[in-house]
Design a protein that fits this description.
By secondary structure, this protein is an alpha+beta fold. About 30% of the residues lie in helices and about 40% in strands. β2 and β3 form a beta hairpin. The two termini are about 20 Å apart.
């Protein structure tokens, strides 16, 4: 079984978050994507501390899909430096992980 990953990104509106989620799932780069927010982000940018409202998108994917998912997010995201962070899934139900693998396999 291929290693499962969760991949997190953020954007500045619910609509953009839903577009990122749908685009990745339609392209089978992720089996599922969850949009949550708004969240408050505090970060350094251009020598200042910024605070902004953002929406998070959490993608469920596989290690083999990660390079394509990252390239897709960089291409379609409107942030200059989008947050794209992958975390390995250490454990998961066999049925869910099999479904994730099946849904990210090109058809």
């Amino acid at each position: 079984m291929t290693l499962a990953l969760t991949v997190l990104t953020t954007t500045d509106s619910a609509g953009k978050a839903e577009e990122l989620a749908r685009g990745a799932v339609e392209a089978r780069l992720a089996a599922c994507a969850q949009v949550s927010g708004p969240v408050t982000s505090v970060y350094h940018w251009n020598n200042a501390i910024e605070t902004s409202q953002e929406w998070q998108v959490l993608f469920k994917t596989t290690e083999s899909c990660y390079p394509s998912l990252e390239a897709h997010l960089i291409r379609v995201h409107d942030y200059e430096t989008p947050e794209i962070i992958a975390t390995p899934v250490v454990r998961g139900s066999a049925g869910y992980l099999a479904w994730l693998q099946q849904e990210t396999t090109a058809r």
